[in-house]
TrEMBL record:
InterPro entries: DUF2264_N, UCP014753. Residues 13-372 form the DUF2264 domain. It comes from Echinicola rosea. This is DUF2264 domain-containing protein.
Length: 390
């Protein structure tokens, strides 16, 4: 059977993923490693923006980028060209962590003022949890102390009664792992509420109500897994829910794979679509963990995610003249962005690259490409049945 799009082998696909991630990351990490992020990063906002974006946008850019980039960095340096490139970005990321949490530095970030820093303290914490050997252990004692202090300082922010509860849990999970103690109430409450808010078939409500958007992928499913993974490692009772959350996330990953059209397009539904291909964080994480459902092959996910990334990247005005992301979905479309979104917010798109944490020899990269579900079906291929779960 002939399919309409060209296929690439796994090594070519991996090279494309790496090149795209580093293109997105360069402006943020280079500037922050030199203590010049606040001096050089533009702050594009919507016409009806919430106030104070200049005070929160820098932590957004760094925390979200680090969260998505961390699994790739965790592979560490090696003698291959890619391994040498990773070494460069590991060095930049460590410098950036130091500068972002140094109270005396020009790029010291806001972890306490307004509500938004709680969100991005959580993404920052998630990045550290995803790459402890490369982004935590080698830090100096001074930098580690500064990181712990910054994360603890975010406790002054009260979360909304929604997915925001998970931001408190993520911060506390990092404190438990790296500082040895945490506020266990702030860990237990979001997990218990999300068990209440489960609606069936792999989907959680965003709070008590269902929202048809991508927050199950932007936040909910990945943070439930990353929090309970720490609790399981630490042999805390709440870690017993890890397998339950994983089973639900596997079903949601199957749904996400089916949302990707033959040409890499997908439904534009709900809030925060300016996060672009960050909408597929959950699918990327389940592929990274090699826990895809039985009927979803790793190489079909590789092709599907690549098609999504390429579709976005073909828009000529996704970046400004200096390489910073612009507000929009397909290129520069500031009208799609909500009032809470500014330049830094956009770097949540990096979450699609979690799969780069799989080594080049993993089946995700080494298997021959398989057509993803919609590409297969719309080409006359096998239309396998789909079935809901509880």
């Amino acid at each position: 059977m002939v399919f309409s799009q060209e296929t690439q082998n796994g090594s070519e696909s991996r090279e494309y993923y790496v090149n795209t991630l580093t293109k997105i990351a360069d402006p943020v990490l280079v500037a922050l490693s030199e203590n010049k992020l606040k001096a050089t990063m533009p702050v594009e906002k919507t016409k009806d923006h919430y106030g104070g974006r200049e005070e929160v946008t820098y932590l957004e850019a760094f925390g979200r980028l680090l969260s998505g980039m961390a699994p790739w960095l965790e592979l560490g340096p090696d003698e291959t060209p890619e391994g040498q490139l990773r070494e460069k970005y590991i060095f930049l990321a460590r410098k950036a962590i130091h500068n972002a949490t140094d109270p005396e530095g020009p790029d010291f970030m806001n972890f306490t003022k307004h509500g938004q820093p709680l969100v991005d303290a959580a993404f920052f914490a998630q990045g550290l949890l995803r790459a402890p050997e490369q982004l935590w252990e080698p830090l100096s004692a001074e930098t580690k102390a500064n990181v712990i202090a910054a994360l603890k300082s975010s406790r002054v922010i009260s979360p909304y009664y929604s997915n925001w509860l998970l931001f408190t849990g993520m911060v506390e999970a990092a404190l438990l792992k790296f500082d040895g103690e945490a506020d266990m109430v702030r860990l237990a409450y979001p997990l218990n509420k999300h068990k209440e808010w489960y609606l069936g078939d792999g989907m959680y409500g965003d709070g008590p109500e269902f929202h048809w958007d991508y927050y199950n992928s932007f936040v909910i499913q990945p943070m439930l897994l990353d929090i309970t993974k720490v609790l399981k490692e630490k042999e805390v009772n709440m870690g017993r829910d890890f397998d339950l959350f994983l089973e639900r996330a596997q079903r949601y990953a199957a749904i996400q794979e089916r949302l990707i059209g033959p040409d890499g397009t997908y439904p534009i539904i709900g809030r925060s679509m300016a996060y672009r291909f960050g909408a597929f964080q959950s699918l990327s994480q389940i592929a990274l963990w090699q826990q895809l459902p039985e009927k979803v092959k790793p190489s079909q996910v590789r092709g599907a995610l690549e098609a999504v990334i390429r579709k976005h990247m073909e828009a000529a005005d996704m970046f400004d003249e200096d390489g910073w992301l612009t507000l929009g979905f397909y290129g520069h479309q500031p009208e799609v962005a909500e009032p809470y979104i500014s330049t830094g917010s956009l770097y949540l798109c990096a979450e699609v690259f979690l799969v780069l944490g799989l080594p080049a020899g993993a089946p995700f990269w080494s298997d021959a490409e398989e057509p993803w579900t919609q590409k297969r079906i719309w080409s006359g291929g096998d239309a396998k049945r789909d079935k809901a779960t509880k």
